[in-house]
Amino acid sequence: MTAPEHCVIIGASHAGTQVATGLRRHGYEGRITLVGEESQLPYHRPPLSKAYLKGEKAADGIRLAAPANYEKNRIELKLGVRVTTADSAAKSVGLSSGDTLNYSSLVLATGSVPRRLPLPGAELGGVHYLRSLEDVDRIRAEVAAQGNAVVIGGGYIGLEAAASLRSLGMQVTVLEAMDRVLQRVTSPEVSAFYQDLHTDEGVVIRTGARIAKLSGDHSVSAVELDSGESLPASLVIVGIGILPATSLAEQAGLELDNGICVDEYARSSDPDIYAVGDCASFVHPLYGKRLRLESVQNASDQALTAARHICGQPEPYCTVPWFWSDQYDVKLQIAGLAIDIDQTIVRADPDNPRSLSVLYLKEARLRAIDAMNRPRDFVFGKKLIMEKSVLDTARLADVAVGLNDAVVQTASA
Ligand SMILES: Cc1cc2nc3c(=O)[nH]c(=O)nc-3n(C[C@H](O)[C@H](O)[C@H](O)COP(=O)(O)OP(=O)(O)OC[C@H]3O[C@@H](n4cnc5c(N)ncnc54)[C@H](O)[C@@H]3O)c2cc1C
Questions:
Q1: Could you write out the DSSP letters of every residue in 105-156?
Q2: Does residue 412 have a pLDDT over 60?
Q3: Which label site among 157, 241, 299, 391 has the fewest CB atoms less than 10 Å from its CB?
Q4: Whether the predicted pLDDT of 413 surpasses 60
Q5: Which residue from 63, 87, 96, 110 has its CB within 8 A of the most atoms of ligand 1, so it is best to mutate?
């Protein structure tokens, strides 16, 4: 007799909920259990550093799905419960509640955890990471107009937090260890755009910053630099990157390489265990490299790939990665990855300093685009990346020329 079909999904966020609903959409008739250690109903994470931090949206406004949706799809939600053990030989997982669940398929959608700041004073009150809704509730309780906030890390989350705190009236300083903000993720042109944007809005950005320690009694009162300079701070937000949550995968003996290694169907080295979203790394067919992507698009699309495979309808994962970031009145939309490029072209709007696209090409084919307040460039750029069209690069710098009008040859031609 075969064991009853039971898909256990660990992690109830973007990737986990998409696997659960995707399974039903593709005809899965077995039992589905979605286990999440956060006690909140699953929610959209991107608004945390944007509309939710600014108080423009309430928790109810950022739910991924209404409670009735889980019932309708016969998804057993176990919230506020952590999976503590994973035994791939016994095909079971142990829960913090003391229960054990047997599975026929297991999906790890455990996401990532913030990298901790390895400095004296990092455990003081008033020092926060920004990953969960509860983190932001704690931050919001400490926002004080005219108060001093220091953001450690000039990546997307740090800069979004800086923009939100600034719009709430705080005096904000961003400390970035590298030579420019967003150095790990984008080009010097885009870094310069964001440095100028924040400076215009009254945020102080300090690159090449070396922090010695955080000081204060019980709560932080200052960030001390190596130079001896002391920056007053009643609120510190640390955004220095994330690490994939792989401890259960390690226990289960899965192959790891910058995350849980999966194939084009999101299958790990154990054929009954899948991994999706921030915790998984895979060889991207468009780039021929092992990557781990930290985006809602990847979490959702890879989750659907796993759901289809579990339902016996395999379809390899191959999409152009995309991402967005909102800071002040600027919407950044990114498509593709600027890997292995030989040309960068800037499309600057002479009439609007807050509108710019940066194109990344190889052999006149678009590989990636960063579009700031240029949604049409983003839409056409995404299409051209997928189509691998050859472009007339001489015309691309002219913002009056639409990206689709610069095509000289489609890949299929
Ligand atoms: C503040 C912020 C802003 C962002 N903005 C954007 C944006 O603008 N655009 C964009 O594309 N992306 C953005 N991202 C990134 C995006 O949110 C992530 O890529 C996405 O959430 C990944 O989804 P996931 O389901 O893989 O992982 P996560 O969302 O990290 O969820 C993993 C879940 O698993 C749970 N879990 C982990 N281990 C266990 C366990 N053992 N037992 C039970 N539960 C467990 C965790 O508690 C968590 O709820 C942002 C992220 C943050 C934090």
A1: EEEE---EEEPPP-STTTTSBTEEE-SSHHHHHHHHHH--TT-EEEEE--SH
A2: no
A3: 241
A4: no
A5: 110
Q: Is the CB of 95 under 6 A from ligand 1?
A: no
Q: Report d(CA 291, CA 284) in Å as an integer.
A: 7
Dist. CA 114 → ligand 1 center (Å): 10
Banded model confidence at residue 411, pLDDT cuts 50, 70, 90? low
Q: Pocket of ligand 1, candidates 39, 45, 326: which has the most ligand atoms within 8 Å of its Cβ, to mutate?
A: 45
Q: What residues contact 93, with CB distance under 8 A and at least 6 apart?
A: 8, 10, 35, 83, 85, 86, 87, 100, 101, 103, 106, 248
Q: How remote is the CA of residue 289 from the centroid of ligand 1, in Å?
A: 23
Question: Looking at residue 409, what is its pLDDT?
Answer: 76
**Distance, CA of 167 to CA of 46 (rounded, Å):** 17
Q: Does ligand 1 come within 6 angstroms of the Cβ of 294?
A: yes
Q: Which atom of ligand 1 is nearest to the CA of 276?
A: 26
**What is the structure's pLDDT at 2?**
63
CA of residue 236 to ligand 1 center, whole Å: 21
Residues 154-164 have a mean pLDDT of: 98
The verdict on the CB of residue 35 being under 6 Å from ligand 1 is: yes
pLDDT digits (tens, 9 = 90+) for 98-131: 999 999 999 999 999 999 999 999 999 999 999 9
Q: What is the mean pLDDT of residues 197-202?
A: 98
Binding site membership of 381 for ligand 1 (Cβ less than 6 Å): no
Cβ burial of 59 (10 Å; 0-12, 13-18, 19+) is: middle
